[in-house]
Design goal:
The structure holds two protein chains of two kinds. By secondary structure, chain A is mainly α. Chain A has one domain. Chain A is about 75% helix and about 5% strand. In chain A, a hairpin with a 2-residue loop joins strand 2 and strand 3. Chain A is globular. The N and C termini of chain A lie far apart (about 55 Å). Chain B is mainly alpha-helical. In chain B, the strands form three sheets. In chain B, strands 1-2 form a two-stranded antiparallel sheet. In chain B, strands 3-4 form a two-stranded antiparallel ribbon. A two-stranded antiparallel ribbon of chain B has the order 5-6. In chain B, helix 4 packs across helix 13. Chain B is globular. The chains are: A mainly alpha, B mainly alpha. At the A-B interface, helix 2, helix 3, helix 4, strand 1 and helix 9 of A face helix 1, strand 1, strand 2, helix 7 and helix 14 of B.
Chain lengths: ~300, ~475
């Protein structure tokens, strides 16, 4: 039983990270109906921003408190990836809005290749390990909870509430929801659609950056290939929860995290990704709208 | 851009001032984007601890390129492009009945003859040993991608089913040949059709569950299937030897003649000096024949009821079904036939490399093949062949650019930039030619006479 709860805690931590990335997928899909394939690599860029900030800060201020260090890492990573995703949307997706559906998907795949290879070229292909930032571990009977797991879940919860507030209570969120429902009508009613879409990309990227930095803190290593597999899993999470639905993305993320850690614990660690991808196929085949998604009305 | 100063009311701002502003803005953005990733390099020291050092010079170059590029774009390219479009618009509509040129009408024959003559010409030009590079790295490599892209074209371009896991069938073909030849000693000529059929079966197996899915969902599930097959190949070590891959795969033979140094080998038999170039030339003609087969089957199938059904499915699935077309068999045949050609290409790949490992069948390969299909203008065989030549040949060409070492110093390795440039090319081509290189196509069914249709009138990827 304790082993099971331990796995639940591990899964929850992993699931928080997937959930944060999944929000970026689901928001972009909801608002412009494209799979932002490069989102996983934005997550990876966030991790690298955190890594570089960590190196700079620790070399200048040797005894810097971990809380400040983490905060600066998160903020810079959010800023950095926000800027990148804003530029990518501006350069690679916006000119193709209104073109046929495959066009932005292809540029997104191209951008994903560009981003991972850009990091490979500029930062080198080797894995980059950093020493553990947070070492505290708490024991409860046979279970252990590390402080970093608590930080991850806490930061995710705080960010999600801020995010929920923005989407549901602010004029910006209203504009986003309006654009999602009907872009043309929203534009007619005075919503600056281009700006709203840009901000959506920036927000998605900022959440992915937090996830990337957390991932770096949790595993202590960054690599230019980190974008793909977590990216696909986060997308799986978004689809599982019902693409376009924000609570669905978080729910999907948590489920994927739980399934992954439970599968690794009870079945085989080698096939954990097969389990995730298999689940994705299974869900899409039997319930394509996901858990919380709206059914898509087919028009002739 | 985001600055409200350039809103419609201030249209009289001189273009150079605007270009300067935009250039500076782009420079600032680039500074923000690149300051961490380019401006700072992280590296491991001898103790494996990470260290960092700044690279301000490189950062300045990146920012400069962005600023100057944006300045030139706004100040010179955009006015020029707008003027060109205006001139175009004033020209009379192109006469649709104009006689096409000789080159145009005989393009396919010329291309085929050029391909047939390619290896002997290369051998004559750069010698037997020197031709290896051109026949193998350029010829065979490009033709493999042409074949794969033509195979995928049946699924994506004709039937409109977006498949992001095509490389799975390539893997099935390659592993079928590798495993069956090393465990049972079957020959290439038996296994070539067999691996195609096996891949076709896998196409049906993977096609069944996704029959109900459309568009992006279909794309993601096929991606998941592709990844599952790769993960199984990695983890099922008892059969596939996992990441080590299978090596020592027997080569293909020409009517039983082996391409080795033995007395009955090809070189001895024809009294030629021993060289691996002959095997490559043989493989070149083999893949060329396979490509021709793919093209032939595609062209014939398009004229058959099943091909018409595919195209109807692509245009509108609901209408297609209400007209009584069985969408289940239509989709499954598209998957199966597309997968079959992937399987052929896979077994050819295994015979050429003599080694297969899951590394060759990553998602990136699927993305590259799909990119070639889309960049070529979906459904157009010529366009796809051109796209494969440009994209694959272009990145192969990078390996040859030794002179760049003199420009950027001896540490410069152009291969590193291969995929980076490939990705950039994908984005740039898509931005300027969203319909691909060949944006028009010949309709298969027409009233009285055939006329080219702009690609904008056909739907794709809705699945």
């Amino acid at each position: 039983m304790e082993y099971f709860i331990q796995q639940l805690i591990n899964g929850l931590t992993l699931g928080s990270i997937y959930g944060l990335v999944a929000i970026g997928y689901t928001m972009v899909y909801g608002i412009i109906g494209m799979i932002n394939f490069a989102h996983g690599d934005i997550f990876m860029l966030g991790g690298f921003a955190g890594l570089i900030v960590y190196l700079i800060l620790t070399s200048f201020f040797a005894g810097i408190p971990v809380a400040i260090l983490l905060l600066v890492m998160l903020l810079v990573a959010m800023l950095m990836t926000g800027l990148w995703n804003w530029t990518i949307e501006r350069v690679a997706y916006r000119p193709l809005r209104g073109s046929f559906r495959l066009a932005p998907l292809i540029t997104a795949i191209g951008m994903s290749i560009v981003l991972s290879n850009f990091i490979q070229v500029t930062q080198g292909p080797r894995n980059k390990p950093i020493p553990a930032l947070v070492r505290d571990v708490y024991h409860f009977g046979a279970m252990t909870i590390s402080l970093k797991q608590i930080i991850i879940v806490l930061v995710t919860a705080v960010l999600l509430s801020i995010f929920w507030y923005i989407v549901n209570k602010t004029p910006l969120g209203r504009a986003q929801r309006a654009t999602e429902q009907d872009r043309k009508m929203a534009a007619l009613l005075g919503v600056d659609v281009d700006r709203t879409i840009s901000i959506t990309f920036v927000m998605g990227a900022a959440l992915a950056a937090v996830a990337g930095t957390m991932y770096l803190m949790y595993y202590g290593v960054a690599s230019f290939t980190d974008g793909f597999t977590p990216g696909v899993k986060a997308f799986t999470a978004a689809v599982l929860g019902g693409i376009g639905s924000l609570p669905g993305a978080v729910l999907g993320g948590l489920l994927i995290g739980l399934i992954e850690s439970l599968w690794s614990a009870y079945f085989s660690i080698a096939y954990k990704d097969v389990a995730t991808f298999g689940l994705l196929a299974f869900v899409l085949i039997f319930k394509p709208t996901g858990i919380l998604g709206r059914p898509e009305v087919e028009k002739v | 851009m985001a600055n409200p100063d350039y809103a419609a009311g201030k249209a009289e701002t001189p273009i150079m001032v605007k270009a300067l502003k935009e250039g500076i803005f782009a420079g600032v953005i680039a500074l923000g984007m690149f300051c961490l990733y380019v401006g700072i390099k992280t590296d491991q020291d001898i103790n494996n601890a990470l260290i960092w050092y700044p690279r301000w010079g490189l950062l300045a170059i990146f920012v400069g390129i962005a600023a100057v590029g944006r300045f030139l774009m706004v100040g010179f390219f955009s006015p020029w492009n707008a003027a060109r479009k205006e001139r175009r618009a004033q020209l009379p509509v192109r006469d649709i009945d104009a006689k096409p040129t000789f080159f145009h009408t005989h393009f396919l024959k010329i291309a085929l003859v050029a391909l047939l003559l390619y290896p002997p010409v290369m051998i004559a030009l750069v010698g037997t040993q020197g031709s290896l590079k051109y026949v193998d790295n350029f010829g065979i490599q490009i033709l493999i991608y042409v074949m794969l892209a033509w195979g995928l074209n049946i699924v994506v371009g004709l039937a409109g089913l977006l498949d992001l896991g095509y490389v799975a069938f390539y893997a099935v073909g390659a592993y079928s040949y590798a495993l069956l030849s090393s465990y049972f000693g079957l020959s290439f000529w038996v296994l070539l059709p067999l691996s195609g059929i096996l891949a076709g079966f896998w196409g049906i197996i993977l096609g069944f569950p996704v029959l109900r899915l459309r568009g992006d969902y279909l794309a993601i599930v096929t991606l998941a299937f592709g990844e599952i097959i790769r993960l199984v190949l990695i983890n099922w070590t008892a059969v596939t030897k996992g990441t080590f891959g299978i090596s020592g795969i027997p080569k293909a033979t020409l009517f039983g003649i082996k391409f080795d140094a033995s007395p009955t080998g090809f070189a001895k038999l024809f009294d030629l000096p021993m060289s691996s170039a002959y095997y490559k030339v043989f493989l070149f003609y083999l893949i060329l024949a396979l490509c021709m087969l793919t093209a032939y089957v595609t062209i014939r199938l398009r004229r058959m009821p099943i091909g018409r059904a595919w195209e109807a499915l692509r245009e509108d699935e609901t209408a297609c079904r209400s007209l009584g077309i069985n969408t289940v068999t239509t989709k499954l045949t598209a998957f199966a036939i597309g997968a079959m050609f992937g399987g052929f290409a896979g077994s050819f790949f295994a015979a050429r490399q003599g080694f297969v490992s899951p590394e060759s069948f990553v998602f990136l390969e699927s993305a590259v093949i799909l990119a070639i299909v889309v960049l070529g203008g979906m459904g157009s065989l010529t366009g796809i062949a051109i796209a494969a030549m440009v994209m694959v040949g272009g990145t192969e060409l990078l390996r040859e650019m030794e002179f760049l070492k003199h420009v950027f110093g001896p540490d410069f390795t152009p291969e590193l930039y291969r995929m980076l440039l490939f990705g950039l090319a994908m984005v740039i081509v898509m931005l300027f030619k969203p319909r691909g290189f060949v944006g028009s196509r010949q309709p298969t069914a027409f009233l009285k006479e055939s006329r080219a249709v702009s690609g904008s009138f056909t739907k794709e990827g809705h699945g």
